[in-house]
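[job 0417] fold request received: Transcriptional regulator
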Amino acid sequence: MNRTDRLYALVEELRAVAPRPRSARWLAERFEVSARTIERDISALQQSGTAIYAETGRTGGYCLDRTHTLPPVNLTPEEAVAMALALRGMEGTPFRQPAASALRKLVAAMRPEDVAVARELAGRIHLAGDSAPPGLPRLLGGALPVGGVVRIGYADRHGAVTSREIEPFGYVSVRDRWYLIAWCRLRDSARIFRSDRITTMTATRETARPRTMAEVALDIPHRLRPLTLTPAG
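[job 0417] inference complete; emitting structure tokens
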């Protein structure tokens, strides 16, 4: 079990027995780690705002205040990524830090399998600078699922539109524009499409093997940073 999954499981274990406590030793045996690791995990959860407190005494341990915590929520991976993307637009504002804390709490309340999908999708979105362009692209998230095949109309610089079938696998934002990275079946190679030149978009029922950046030999400049669900602050 990785640390993200263990933090989620720790909260759920304490929620299940609340208001009764669980000792660090008991939790260490339950998750097959050291008591010191449990103490570090509990400290990290407390710093993120999770309402965990310690009870002293022979039967003491860690307790969760259920009235100040979120139960497991049905936040989808796309919703989590959209929230992380919106958070990037709050750089430099007085609300950046509390918004980051709220995102961490929501991610901690998600199912581990959904968190894994959300992190994978976030890693396919690369941003230049500290903020995303002001307008979110209509092609982001579930509208163009990675591993799917989409039929688009795409206009060139002269306005001529061609019909193409593409396999999306990443997104890039530079300055005030969004770009879709996809495998173009018409050109039989990776292509970068400007979102404002996509005139039509139709999802098909066909699936395609998900591709990675390395597989298509497409270099992402180092100044472009991938989106993350665990922002600093």
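[job 0417] notes: Helices lie at 3-17, 24-31, 35-47, 77-88, 96-109, 112-122. The CA atoms of residues 77 and 203 lie 19 Å apart.
[job 0417] exit 0
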